[in-house]
Amino acid sequence: MSSPIAAASILTSSQYEEEQLTRDTSQDDMGRDSFLLLFTTQLNNQDPLSPMDNEAFVAQLAQFSTLEANYSIRDSMDTMVGGMRQDQMLAGANLVGKSVAVEGGYFHAEEGAVTSGSIDLDKGAESVIMSIFNGAGDLVFRETTGARLPGTVDLNWSGMNLKGEVAPAGEYVMSASYIMNGKLETAPVTTLAKVKSVNWDPAAQEMALEIGNGSLVSLSDVKRISI
Questions:
Q1: How do the domains of the chain map onto residue ranges?
Q2: How far is CA 51 from CA 55, 59, 130, 148, 220, in A?
Q3: Whole-model pTM?
């Protein structure tokens, strides 16, 4: 008959699996050693009058082996993902200071400089209205152009305000709307924005770029990269 101490030290396969799922991963090696010790103790202290049959032992050992293999695969995947993240961050660091084409219409304008943007029109438009707002949300400039064919429509702001004066350097937003079949619709504007920093988004597990206005843009949303 097994001793109370030995019997209390025996783990079933389900108990071991539960313990492994809640274990401290920093103690992996100790956990494996403990399992081997407990498994040996179980073999030595089984009831000789009613021993566990060989098939049960083999099944239990196979379950333990499968669980350990799954943890090894998980550890390998974590290492690979960590390496990929470092590579992405290093690659993203090269984008700092460069301009990327993103939707939103945000851009930094130098005094008197021409700023370009674009919109995509699937069905064309009877007319297109471009508006420029400053950082405070005040209208700085507005221009209406004629009919446009389907496709990409380029928008250009000369850097002048509504009074025909040169607008100061700063942060601006370019927005656009168009008229089609008598209805006024809005269209997302793509502009070039400076990359200020590179960040890692843990929720999406991807790299995000902080652009000039402080917002974060996913690298997958970048349409073009410019010096």
A1: 4-93, 99-226
A2: 12, 15, 85, 86, 61
A3: 0.56
Q: Quick count: other Cβ atoms within 10 Å of Cβ 176?
A: 22
Question: Which amino acid is residue 16, in one-letter code?
Answer: Y
Residue showing tokens 């350097």: 169
R_g (Cα) of the chain, nearest Å: 32
| Residue environment code for 19-35, b if the CB has 16+ CB neighbours within 10 A, otherwise e | ebeeeeeeeeeebeebb
Assigned token pair, 155: 């928008």
| CATH class of the domain at 99-226 | mainly beta
Confidence grade of residue 41 (pLDDT, cut at 50, 70, 90): confident
Q: Is 181 exposed, middle or buried (0-12, 13-18, 19+ CB in 10 A)?
A: exposed
Encode pLDDT of 1-34 as tens digits: 444 334 434 444 455 455 555 555 444 444 556 6
Q: What is the pLDDT of residues 120-141, one digit of tens each?
A: 999 999 999 999 999 899 999 9
CA distance 57 to 212: 64
